[in-house]
Amino acid sequence: MPEERVVATNRRAHHDYFILERLEAGIVLKGTEVKSLRAGRANLREAFARVENGEVFLYNLHISPWDYGNRWNHDPTRTRKLLLHKAEIRRLVGKTREKGKTLIPLRIYFNSRGRAKVELALAQGKKLWDKRESIARRDEAREIERRLKGRS
């Protein structure tokens, strides 16, 4: 059985947000979107999710038009519905109403069954000083690792 294949990751998510919780969601796609995803043509940079009327929608996910899609091609940044259990959606409604909490996609991938999935994260935005602190901690760890490597 093949492993999951990652199509796109949101690399800035860990820099801009504290990741509080992760969950997997299915995504409703059109045929040309699936073909374009399989070709690895997606961008999560400005994407976010929102709960509306008991459903979760993904905004600003850019999936490039498929090269051979001609008139059946999709709108690259259309709003896409995410598939979650009702209990998960109810829990997310309460969590996202808290101040500063948001839903962001971390990655899009195809699972071992070939289904397109989105890894969503409940996140809280970092302030500028939090970002500086994270960078300082990372640089410090890198320096310690370099010195230990030089010793052996």
Structure characterization notes:
The chain has 152 residues and is α+β, with helices and mostly antiparallel strands. The chain has a single domain (5-126), classed as Small Protein B, Chain: A, CATH 2.40.280.10. It is 32% helix and 36% strand. It has helices at 13-16, 31-38, 86-97, 128-151, and strands spanning 5-9, 17-27, 42-43, 48-52, 55-59, 62-63, 80-83, 101-110, 116-125. The strands form 2 sheets. The protein has a 7-stranded antiparallel β-sheet with strand order 1-8-9-2-7-5-4. Strands 3-6 form a two-stranded antiparallel ribbon. A hairpin with a 5-residue loop joins strand 8 and strand 9. The chain is globular, with a radius of gyration of 18 Å.
Q: β content, as a range? A: 35-45%
- How many domain regions? 1
CATH superfamily: Small protein B
What is the CATH level 1 assignment?
Mainly Beta
Q: Tell me the number of helical segments per DSSP (H or I, 4 or more residues long).
A: 4
> Given the C-alpha coordinates, what overall shape results?
globular
What structural class do you assign from the helix and strand content?
alpha+beta
Sheet with the most strands: spatial strand order: 1-8-9-2-7-5-4
